[in-house]
Amino acid sequence: MPTADRPSLSVVVPAHENPSALDTTLRSLTRQTLPAADFEVVVGDDGSAVALGPVVDAYRGRLRIEYVRSDRNRGRSANRNAAAARARAATLMFLDADTVAHPTLLKRHRDFHAGRAGRPGVLLGQRYDLDWAGADALRRGEPVVPAMLDAERGDPRLEDIALPQRMGDFPSAPWVLGLTHNASVDHESFRRVGGFDEAMVKWGFEDLEFFYRVFHLHGAPPELFRLDVDALSYHLPHFRKTSNGIASMDNMKYLLRKHLRYDVEVLYGINTFGRHLGRIRLYGAAIEAYRSGGLGRPDVLPGSLRDELATSAALVVGNGVSALDLGPGSHTFDHDAPVGGTNSHLLGTVLQQFKAGALDLIVNVDMWRCLLPEDLPAFLTRGLLKADRIELVASRTGLDQRALLPVPLVADLDYVADMLRPHFSVAVAAYDAATVITLR
């Protein structure tokens, strides 16, 4: 039961400038079906030019509310962490200062976590992106009517995963949909992962990165996250800087340096939320299928290629390849070995950690055969900016391509070689244990 010292829910509202939006958001929290005694509100002011304290003070008689102000703009992560540090409840709910809560929103978040009986969990709510009419209605205290919520105002995450097969992808990487405009997490998980990464001071991806760590903290259980389409909120119009998109790519590159795994690498491509989910699920299944099928093993490499690897700066991709004798400056993408200084759990579609010309060659043992047709060109094109040549090694195997579905497997090597010839210098050589396609 909530008490005067310990409410059941702490609503963390990070804010920067735009006092009118914050006022509208706080007003919506006075109209909740969850009793005001059951929750608290902590507003974090990230160094607004004009302090937002007066906006907060206007609600002290109607809400249990706290105000935390930074004397400078430290970024979205630091602001959320500073506000969360003042929160007292066992459940933290993050609500952006330009996101208006439906009257039942807080109760849905509180009830989800109460129903987990102390087990960790994350609830992701949905939002409508309002235009002027919807925003004006909320500012006047009037209801939002269906005409204000047509398809153009919907939550893009829900549009992307509306198809049944996309909902099936959600448990594989629910953090991809982890936007903090309307989301809650148990306080203990927040504490254990250390909150939001304050090194991410620019716009974008800091919330996904936080939920990524929560997901993997608990071993990636499929039931940890729930997407609740009835946990409604309304996103107010606000000025979006065109530079935000460029800044977000800097954060994306930071994520790839921090988490050397394929599920983060997939996000680098321009795609919908749903297709990101599908690729993470598919490539996770591919890594397991290739391992169980005995693919990617270094013992199929021709002796001449092994000898060259011992003296070259190379990137070698495959299962067990980190045990090879490799030359100075070499790296591996080996999913059978722990991530370390020279080994990553990546696919190779980005290769941002290598400078142009840093490698003598790239050798990919079978893992290239699992890349989707739109991802293989990225690996090859970027790879030949980093290395003089690429060796695509295909083990001779009795695996049935159709039996692996939906995991992809290149089986017709002649077709692939013909496809690549207009774009690269291509040579094909057959050995006892493998066929090797050389690209320059």
Notes on the structure:
The protein is α/β, with parallel strands linked by helices and 440 residues long. It is 32% helix and 20% strand. The protein has helices at 19-29, 53-57, 76-84, 105-114, 132-139, 156-160, 164-169, 187-193, 206-217, 243-258, 262-265, 273-292, 303-309, 376-386, 413-420, and strands at 9-15, 39-46, 65-70, 91-95, 99-101, 122-129, 182-186, 225-235, 314-317, 331-333, 343-344, 359-365, 387-395, 426-430, 434-439. It has an eight-stranded mixed sheet with strand order 3-2-1-4-7-6-8-5, with helices on both faces. A seven-stranded mixed sheet has the order 11-10-9-12-13-15-14, covered by helices on one side. Strand 2 (39-46), helix 2 (53-57) and strand 3 form a beta-alpha-beta unit. Helix 8 crosses helix 9 (206-217). It is elongated, with a radius of gyration of 25 Å. The relative contact order is 0.09.
